[in-house]
Design a protein that fits this description.
13 strands, alpha+beta, two-stranded antiparallel ribbon
């Protein structure tokens, strides 16, 4: 591992902290990094968006208050048998109070080993598997080759960030009311190097058509929010907008990239050099 000094985005007063960069790109290391980045990166974003983060040794619970399950999650849990049921019910109660759906990502480090079975008994819905993938950034191309007519920019101003949100909403087919909630949340984030996430916007002949974002957390680059609007798919834009933040992260001294893949994105990431380390089991709680 090596140390990289980066701005602390949680208090915004210019303090500095050390981010220990993960240099080990073995499958075992990438698997650990995927879980750690999901937890730490999500918590950073939720804090920046003005949401709620409950962070205790046995449970990390993050809620943006957005009525889309992906923004309200439990990404880490080490639950003891004597507190297991109470903790699950606590998560359900908080979700009910926020009137927001929740996802619980069960990875290989979570305890107990049969956590998923307990979640189902408490009313969670088994949503199936989600591949956890990783790549050594040294395997990526030296430069970013763009499809014809395509430009990719890191978002640096509020106008472009609003375009990022709108494009993401179209690509993921998010209902307009939830897009407005996402817009209000994301616009609270800083757009400098100390931001919780860095946002990337692809344009085709000047029109926004694809998005991605990266959290530099837990020593790796965690990619999320990758989508392309339907009319621009099949041109390699999704791969390019995924690659852009990874190349930037490599320039900043990072060695590994991780993500959680959708069914549509999986073959794209595999062609880029990502390999699957494990699969999360995803459970959903839907309040009344």
């Amino acid at each position: 591992m090596s140390a990289l000094y980066c701005g602390n985005s949680e208090d915004g007063v210019g303090r500095w902290q050390v981010d220990i960069i993960v240099r080990d790109v073995s499958p075992e290391s990438l698997a650990r990094a995927n879980e750690a980045n999901l937890a730490e990166g999500l918590a950073k974003c939720i804090r920046a968006y003005g949401g709620e983060v409950y962070d205790e040794p046995d449970l990390l619970w993050c809620a943006a208050g957005i009525h889309g399950a992906g923004w309200n999650r439990v990404p880490r849990a080490q639950l003891a048998p004597e507190t297991l049921g109470a903790r699950i019910e606590w998560v359900k109660t908080r979700a009910q109070a926020l009137h927001a759906p929740f996802l619980w990502h069960v990875g290989p480090s979570m305890q107990p080993a049969d956590l998923g079975e307990h979640l189902v008994r408490h009313g969670f819905i088994d949503e199936g598997d989600e591949p956890a993938m990783g790549v050594a950034l040294s395997r990526l191309p030296e430069t970013l080759a763009l499809p014809e007519g395509v430009t990719i920019e890191r978002v640096r101003d509020r106008t472009s960030l609003e375009q990022w949100v709108r494009t993401s909403g179209v690509g993921f087919e998010i209902p307009d009311p939830i897009v407005e909630e996402l817009r209000a949340a994301v616009l609270r984030d800083d757009l400098g190097d100390a931001a919780a996430a860095h946002y990337y916007l692809a344009r085709l002949h000047g029109k926004p058509v694809a998005t991605s974002a990266v959290t530099l957390a837990a020593g790796v680059a965690g990619i999320f929010a990758v989508t392309t609007v339907e009319t621009a798919r099949g041109r390699g834009i999704g791969a390019a907008v995924t690659l852009a933040p990874l190349l930037d992260a490599r320039d900043r001294g990072y060695y590994a990239g991780v993500l959680q893949a959708s069914e549509m994105g999986y073959p794209v990431y595999a062609r880029m050099g990502f390999t699957e380390q494990f699969r999360y089991r995803v459970y959903r709680w839907q309040p009344d």
